[in-house]
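Section 5.1 Outputs to date
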Amino acid sequence: MKKIEIGFLGCGNIGGGVWRMLCDMHREIENRDGLSIHVKRVLVKDVAEALALNASKGLEVPEEVLTENAADVTDDQDISIVCEFMGGEQPAARFMTRALENGKTVITANKVALALNWAQLQAAAEKSGAGLWYEASVGGVIPVIRVLTTNLEADRIDRVMGIINGTTNYILTRMTKEGKDYAEVLSEAQRLGLAEPNPEADVEGMDAGYKLSILASLAFHGRVTYQRIYREGITDISATDISFGREMGYTLKLLAIAKKDGNVVECRVHPTFLPSDHPLAMVDGSLNAIFIHGDYCRDMMLQGRGAGEKPTSSAICGDIVSAALSLKPQYPSFKNTPEDCESFEFTDNWQTSAYIRLSARDEKGVLTRVAGCFAQEDVSIASMMQKNASDDGRVQLIFITHPAPEQAIRRAIAHFDGSICRLETMIRVEE
């Protein structure tokens, strides 16, 4: 029986979930994997508060295990694996670096600290010969990191596209199915605990951006920093546009998209209309899903719970067992630097279709003039829908374009004459 001493940096919902799972699965892990896993120290902000909180959750963490000193975890010679549950960039990244420098394998679900400090963390791990595991940092229980770094390691991946934020998927699903506006659904999600009191990181696409930085780097075998991710959130999405999109055969999702053509790379997070029969369009509620395309694997999609105590705990405990059984650490195949891969050429002029809604004067010649603006930039129209005039005498004109360069679509929109029509919404479309 191999005995493993581990330490926790933090013990909130996820840390508590991992503690609970290790206790629940202790005998099965011993019998199946020959591992006896013992949590020696747990870092908390305040021991007294932690004891009271753990008691309220039925979590039996002994007082002697708790500590307010990070060094009791990062510097303890008996501890070989450190699990980080603090969240945020700092001091989590600093504590993880210290643990790695001391030769301890680190396991984390912290996409922020990883995306912003990956090079530093990996350098510390390589120098000391420690492992760095982060399956739960993207997609929760979905094993997408393992798939990219093992199953698809030899393939040439050219596209990764996914729903990797459960909060926004839940909000957009409710808006789609119930016709409610964003603010109303967000308020309900906050009351249910499905959205944070300050939801900015989720609804503005930051959370998905950190995760896409990690996925794109692994998929394309080169560093893609968070700063390279184009990002738009869902705060301006209306029930009106979702409804019009559905009439035209599309479903709205917040997508993280990474594509590579030769050395040209595009990485973006934004609301996206998908054909309603696309596999990703059918992923509802707080579920996550990641679509991958490669030269040899062709199309594949992974789906599952992207957040929550139990799914994330499952992924982290899987990393604990894998790390304990691993004969030697494995690191990504690319040169991991703080800067973007020097051979990548990043573009903001990707090919995309677009959903464009205009409020226009209800008079002859308007449609011709609008079409001329598109034609001026060689943007062709795939479909068009007109809604009846409102009380102010204006009509709603909705266009879906054929694929065109992003900047050409933007220039076409800039040509619109504000005296006869105004842009209400532009949402990208992926077929």
